[in-house]
Design brief:
2 copies of one chain form a homodimer. By secondary structure, the first copy, chain A, is α+β, with helices and mostly antiparallel strands. The first copy, chain A, contains 10 helices and 7 strands. The interface between A and B is large, with 151 and 152 residues.
């Protein structure tokens, strides 16, 4: 079955009519009689592959141009679409930016917000401005992720936590990211833009909610450690500082983020 | 290196002092001289393992009791902690519920909100009440995920999209979920509770933000398809309805979710 998932051909109607390879896109299928999948652990090698994807995934800002094979792109998007979602609402939509002028305009929005964020950072303005966001121009593909209008109708798991649509979309993007690592591609999630301006640029209806600009494509290599750690912006906290037993324990939490964030 | 990631021993100080196996918990390490990881695709078998985890992960509500080996639990939490986060803010905290009375109290909060959600669903009240949330009582482990106070100091990637902390936490939970599938464990993400009441119960400080109650542990099997699809609550949308080119295209989007959600 695993082989079938990875290799299965694409079977459905085209994305926008001009993608012949979409013609056979399919969801993975189980035997109709199966009601459960055995809960056996993966083999050691399979587990290692899953952890490898998790540990080697990076938020990339440097891309090597090139192209993403359409069949690979669809595998990534299908992986994203198999994320969990609250009440199975599937709140993610992916807009593939094919038009070069539109990509330039998105880059422009990011540059505008980059300057505004830098100013708001005060003492760290210069550090921040060193961190270029070239991915929008250089990556083989740019995908805008947005949530559709009408989400307020979904109250299953959202009556008291309406933000669960965002959390679900985060899961979808993480699936895409891990699959991209497995395929040897890099991805960066850019959230430095005015969402209202991006929504207008892409003619989104009222109530749509843009969540990110994903830069995706070939890279020369993945950063050995997270780029923001390499650049001394921040470093990974010890795992223990993330863990508590039973009750919140302020003594276990690392120094307040504000100090770290704005410190030298 | 892959083997090292999966098998590496635990090296740091205890979680709360009473977990001797925490004594050697380590992050995966790269050779200090490495600045990049080659961007070669995974082997076919490795890729298949990653996609298998993505496609076989389920939001589980049925658990088989038992225990989660502590070394496995730490592998899962370490996987979660290696998620991407906006500006590397690492907004996730995991509270392991060890106290039985506390777990009962959390179950009580979920039951209260379940009734309220059912009423709010109107026509689908009965369908919804059929969907039990026994995981909080039956799962080997219960982990509460919450974000710490002080997040407003992090404006990198959040000046215009403050919800990126939630999206990042979603990525961490998805890592945990996929790793749990690889380990042969089930996980369910419960978001049916009053976050204020849960925050008070666990003595969270003002500004902390609970995001979910994760039920984790052995299961008899994974649902062959998502449980809410098996129960005819909702079904997976065709992938093409999630995809657009360049501009928002309302014609490509499936019937409005409200119709689906509240229909028969």
């Amino acid at each position: 079955m695993r082989e079938k998932i990875t290799l299965s051909l694409i079977r459905r109607g085209g994305w926008c009519g001009d993608w012949p390879t979409m013609a056979a896109m399919s969801e993975p299928e189980l035997s109709p009689s199966a009601t459960t999948i055995p809960s056996t652990p993966f083999t050691e090698a399979e587990r290692a592959a899953v952890y490898r994807a998790i540990y080697e995934r990076r938020d990339m800002r440097h891309f090597a141009g090139g192209v993403v094979d359409e069949a690979v792109l669809l595998r990534l998007l299908r992986a994203a679409h198999h994320a969990p979602s609250v009440g199975f609402m599937q709140p993610w939509r992916f807009i593939r930016i094919k038009n070069a002028a539109l990509r330039q305009a998105i880059h422009g929005l990011v540059e505008e917000e980059r300057v505004r964020t830098a100013r708001a950072l005060g003492a760290r303005e210069e550090d921040f401005m060193q961190l270029k966001v070239q991915g929008v121009l250089d990556a083989a593909e740019v995908l805008v992720v947005a949530m559709p209008p009408g989400r307020e109708a979904h109250i299953f798991g959202r009556r008291t936590l309406p933000e669960m649509d965002i959390a679900s979309s985060g899961c979808a993007i993480q699936n895409l990211w891990l699959a991209a690592r497995a395929e040897g591609l890099g991805m960066g999630w850019v959230s430095i833009f005015d969402p209202q301006a991006l929504a207008e640029l892409l003619q989104m209806p009222a109530g749509a909610h843009p969540l990110g600009v994903l830069c995706l494509g070939p890279v020369d290599g993945y950063y050995a450690e997270p780029m923001l750690q390499q650049e001394k912006w921040a470093s990974r906290a010890p795992l223990q500082d993330m863990l508590m037993d039973d009750l919140w324990d302020a003594s276990r939490i690392a120094p307040p983020p504000a100090g770290k964030q704005h410190g030298a």
